Amino acid sequence: MTGLTAVTLGTMAAVSPPAAAESRDGLPAIAPGTTVTPAIDCAPSAEHPYPVVVLPGGDGTVHETADQWATIVDALNAAGYCTLLFQGGVVNETRWAGDIPSGARQLADFITEVRETTGAERVDIVAHSAGTVVANYFLKVLGGAPRVAHAVLLTPEARGCDGRGSLRQLGIDNLPVAPVEILRALPILAPALAPSMGNALQLSPLSDVYHAVFDGPIAQPGVEYSVLSTRNDEVATPATVCTVIDEPGVTMAFYEDRFPDAPAVGHSTIRSSALTAGWILTRLTS
After folding, report:
1. 34 three-class SS
2. pLDDT tens for residues 85-108?
3. At what angle do helices 274-284 and 70-78 cross, to 10 degrees?
4. Which of 149, 278, 160, 129 shows the shortest CA–CA distance to 222?
5. How far apart (Å, rounded) are the C-alpha atoms in residues 95 and 130?
6. What would the pLDDT profile of 224-257 be if each residue is shown by its tens digit?
7. pTM of the entire structure?
8. Max Cα distance, the chain (Å)
9. How many CB atoms lie within 10 A of CB 64?
């Protein structure tokens, strides 16, 4: 039973309905989920010509989003940005719990609508956690980079995640083998677990989605990437590996290094810090 529980890897482990079809990697396909789309009722200015599309992570329900993101959204609005908070892949009211490529296509459709409505040539993206995977799939795999000026990523899920942090959230700790290593050794478990963990499995090295985003450079030419992570990340583990994108064209920073005297933040609370909001504003003008 421990082995089965341990494959709850990644940080997007949410229950998704089963589907009959299979993807190329042999994992059963999962439903795309729905979207929560904001009204495009703001206009970019000469000072800030790119609307900012904010992508929350998967750590909350759609009913909690406004409160969770008030600090950053309010700061963007106060600075004069046309700010649009988009939620996709919604399954059972949980953000980004559906198929990752489908969520990225939902994002692509929304960005097209934003550009057509506002007349903006490009947009900026501010994404957190699971939202960063969707953003990177859009930018790299779907060819969205020419339509994006800045990609500001908070505690992104990238390469080298071991899945231990997710299990720790469920009260399971001190496993002798990391969940990802269990999957590597016993990939036959994946299809059986996919009906309830399909989304998380798409973040494992067994998945075509994982390789499409993380094989080769993540950062795409023409986009200014900025990453802010925390050394205290308790979800995306190991903290100083899983949330790092160390590539040309990426400004990589840790919260504790930037703000050594500030109260500690974690994987989710980093989005509620006024210091994070200020850092985002600085990066959007880089």
Report:
1. strand
2. 999 999 999 999 989 999 999 999
3. 40
4. 149
5. 9
6. 999 999 999 998 989 899 999 999 999 999 999 9
7. 0.85
8. 58
9. 13
Kindly report the number of other CB atoms within 10 A of residue 276's CB atom: 25
Rounded CA separation 200/67 (Å): 25
From the list 68, 9, 66, 35, the residue with the least C-alpha distance to 236 is: 9
Q: How far is CA 286 from CA 58, 107, 179, 250, 252, in A?
A: 28, 24, 38, 12, 13
In terms of DSSP H, where are the helices of 26-92?
65-68, 70-78
Please tell me the distance from the alpha carbon of residue 159 to that of residue 204, in angstroms, as a whole number. Answer: 10
**Per-residue confidence at 204, pLDDT binned at 50, 70, 90?**
confident
Positive or negative, the CA dihedral 15, 18, 19, 24 is positive
CA 38 to chain centre: 19
Distance CA 284, CA 135 (A): 16
d(CA 170, CA 11): 12
Cis peptide before 176 (omega within 30 of 0): no
**Length reported for the chain:** 286
CB-count exposure of residue 253 (10 Å: 0-12, 13-18, 19+): middle
Dihedral (CA of 234, 86, 102, 104) sign: negative
Of the CA atoms within 13 Å of residue 222, those in its CB half-sphere come to: 10
What is the Cα–Cα distance from 17 to 15, expressed in whole angstroms?
7
Burial of residue 40 (CB within 10 Å: 0-12, 13-18, 19+) is middle
Task: For residues 256 and 276, give the distance between their C-alpha atoms in angstroms, rounded to a whole number.
Answer: 11
- Which residue, 22, 10, 30, is CA-closest to 196? 30
Residue 279 DSSP label? H
Instruction: Name the CA dihedral angle for 229, 123, 218, 269, rounded to a multiple of 10 degrees.
Output: 20
**Residue 83 in tokens:** 């700010």
